[in-house]
Amino acid sequence: MATASLRIDLDAILSNWRALDALSGPQTESGAVVKADSYSLGAARVAPVLARAGCRKFFVACAEEGADIRQAVGETPEIYIFGGHAAGDSDMIGDLNLIPLLNSPEQLNRHFEALPGKPFGIQLDTGMNRLGFEADDWFKAAPAVLHAGPKLIMSHLFCADTPEHPANLAQLTEFRRMTEGMNVPRSLAATGGILLGKDYHFDVTRPGMGMYGGLPFAEAKPVVTLSLPVLQVRDVHPGETVGYSAAWTAEVPSRVATVAAGYADGLSRRLGNAAQVWFGDVPCPVIGRISMDLITVDITHLDDTPREFDLLGPRQGVDAVGEVIGTIGYEVMTSLGHRYERHYVGGAS
Ligand SMILES: *Cc1c(COP(=O)(O)O)cnc(C)c1O
């Protein structure tokens, strides 16, 4: 097999979703964030597993993603769109019964004009300054909005991965001020907010990364294994170089394995001469430049010749790889390319 393979453990995703659900207690309903194709893991496979386990609210970034989720989970679950009701999306939102989280007076007007009586939610800005109604606009619009019966009012925390950051309490206070007494289901917490404790849970939570096995949910079960098959092994003499730009030079007689994956698969060039891959329990340095389709690995210290290495797995998750290249696990995971053979295990609930 000459294609790198991505093994996705659907049972681990489900177990992480349930573990996060248990943290927020029985009064709070756990939704699931499946935007960006479930963070690249394949929403068409992930979402139905969660739906069968009782998840009734899915969250995506835009209407097109919502259409894919509708196809995957059928007509019953609610599908919320963080980006709201964008120009040109009215037909798709109406036909597929998607629920836009309206972000501005402009979106509110668009929704009420194009799809009167159709479900919607509201996104409030409580300090992130990214998406959502500002307080002034919101209090002006609130009477008409509340009369129309929004399904959900939400906001998003911007420092939830740093529990002691004062912005968390400031946003919580602002969210309460903007929603007090409105008698509409409320949602504030993504994975980080769930871990902040019950004040942040409200009626609905929106876990994403924690389900998929990454920080800030440190107790998450690992979900992905990325295995890179060996295409060729060679001996390299001292003084010879490996790969583009001669970025690695053998200092001793060396053995080098070439594996099938590269930056076209979403593996950053910054992994070159910096990361390691795993042969069972043994780490092996990635040497030289990352090519478009190939990576070279120093296996001088191994007795065996591996058939494949793991770049992601229980010993090295997306957060560890992110640390090597100066980014977060979220970016490593959502960069995972389309060329991998995705293998799914579990998920038959
Ligand atoms: C992506 C996103 C989430 C999920 O965040 P995680 O940190 O992955 O749990 C929740 N809410 C909003 C608004 C988001 O954009």
Automatic annotation (TrEMBL):
Gene Ontology cellular component annotations, sorted alphabetically: cytosol
Signal peptide residues on this chain, from the entry's feature table: none
Keyword Isomerase part of the UniProt annotation: yes
Tagged with keyword DNA repair: no
Residues annotated as domain Alanine racemase C-terminal: 223-345
Catalytic activity: L-alanine = D-alanine
GO MF: alanine racemase activity; pyridoxal phosphate binding
Keyword list, A-Z: Isomerase, Pyridoxal phosphate
GO annotation terms (biological process): D-alanine biosynthetic process
Cofactor(s) it depends on: pyridoxal 5'-phosphate
EC numbers for this chain: 5.1.1.1
Pfam families: Ala_racemase_C (PF00842), Ala_racemase_N (PF01168)
Enzyme type, top EC level: isomerase
Chain positions with N6-(pyridoxal phosphate)lysine modification: 35
Active site, UniProt feature: 35 (proton acceptor), 244 (proton acceptor)
Purpose: Catalyzes the interconversion of L-alanine and D-alanine. May also act on other amino acids.
Family membership: Belongs to the alanine racemase family.
Protein name: Alanine racemase
Organism: Paenirhodobacter populi
Gene: alr
